[in-house]
Amino acid sequence: MRKETFVRRLLRDKAAPLLGVLIVLTIITMILSSGILHGEQISALFTKGFMSSGNLLSVFYNLVIQCLMLCGISMILIGGNIDLSVAGQAALSTMVFGWFCKNTSMAWPLALVITLAMAVCFGLINTFLVNKLKFPPFIATIGMASVYRGLCNVITTGNNIQISRATFITIGNTSIAGILPATFVFALLLIIIYQFVLSKTTFGRTIYMAGGNPNAARLSGIKLNKVRLILFINNSILAAIGGLLWSAQIKMASPTAIISAAPDMRVISAAILGGVSFIGGSGNIVGAFIALLLLNVFDNMLKVLNVQSYWNVFATGFLLAVALIIDYINVERRRKSLLLNR
């Protein structure tokens, strides 16, 4: 049997149509924003509008926190759960870190360790509500989202916190060739690592089984509560790191800036559009990342072309609704196929 090539696997993947749309959308945006339709030289494609170095740098910076949150959210969704408090966790983590940096002489690496330890507590709280109190993940995390966001205002009385630790700020603002942020390279490495874990490790297969058929997973000896604990803690840590990198980029701890830069529904929408099943058991990180790129390119295209941003909200919601309908149809088709084969 011939070994399937990478190109064939890519074309067979659910994300293949999204990749095609992303490429076409990028080309259209380059042409419309460069001005070559109005007499500019071809070189303007890469020096003006969408492909200008300043605009690309902005797009990549915005993607950093979303990529980290996407890894955590995708793992949770594939495992048959959901977390709607991820943006609140990211915001609260940055506010706590900012408070330590502003009000104490503590070295920022120590403040970072404390912040990450607190993020682990967020994951433990969410897991406790789901595993022990038997709350549905949707209800538990949407409730905790309000708690986390409310605590942000309690800590700061609604104000932003300026961060002046030079080394920390440098980490968030270092770029390669003035186009590619170092933090974005870090985010890409994480995507590769998490994709490897999902597709090539025993734990990854465990996540798929836990999300696809919890009863069968339980009967086969998989401890669903333990899997859920790992996924929620992992999600909380990634959210905290993403929030901290974003605060390093903007040189302040701002809950409103983080929630607007990486809203929960943007990341969840990207995961589902990229082929991650809303009810668990299927999907991958790469497909979700391509969908996230698509959403951000579309959003940036509207800004470059001076189109009202309301259209982006509409388009994202519409695409999410379509993706959910398709996911439901696929699940029902798979269920009926299993019933017929019995």
Give the helix proportion (percent range): over 70%
Order of helices and strands: HHHHHHEHEEHHHHEHHHH
Q: How many separate helices? A: 15
Flag low-confidence runs.
none
Q: Sheet with the most strands?
A: 2 strands, antiparallel
Radius of gyration (CA) equals: 21 Å
Q: Which structural class best describes the helix and strand composition?
A: mainly alpha
Q: Compute the average pLDDT.
A: 85
Q: How would you write the strand order of the largest sheet? A: 1-4
Choose one word for the global shape.
globular
Would you count the extended β strands for me? 4
Describe the structure.
The chain has helices at residues 6-12, 16-34, 53-78, 86-103, 108-131, 137-156, 166-173, 182-200, 202-212, 214-219, 224-250, 255-261, 264-273, 285-304, 310-340; strands spanning 161-162, 175-176, 180-181, 252-253. With 342 residues, the chain is mainly α. Helix 3 (53-78) packs antiparallel against helix 14, helix 8 (182-200) packs across helix 9 (202-212) and helix 13 packs across helix 15. The longest helix is centred in the last third of the chain and has 31 residues, at 310-340. The protein starts with 5 loop residues before the first helix and ends with a helix. The mean pLDDT is 85.
